[in-house]
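Journal club prep — side note

Before the paper discussion, L.F. wants everyone to see what a predicted structure for a comparable chain looks like in token form. Sequence:
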Amino acid sequence: MKEKIHPKYGPVVFEDVTAGHRFLSKSTMTSGEKVEWEDGKSYPLIQLEVSSASHPFYTGEKVFIDTAGRVESFNKRYTTVVGAKRKTRKKKPTKDK
């Protein structure tokens, strides 16, 4: 391997801010923020929004996602566009017999 082109690989503490869970692992990520671990040593702290401690797939919890608001806003936009096109469309003359 070439010298001085690879990032340093070392121990880092990852913290899941959603669940408050911390775990020690190795990574090339670094941070200016440090935290003292259970062994008394200080390690860089990387904060995560989602990890296995809070992800619904691993926890088994079902998360309700509010899709009603999305669907309603889509229908509102779609009906206004379609409604505008229908209003401007001229009706074909009917033949009277």
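L.F.'s comment for the group: The chain has a mean pLDDT of 81. Keep this in mind when we get to the figures.
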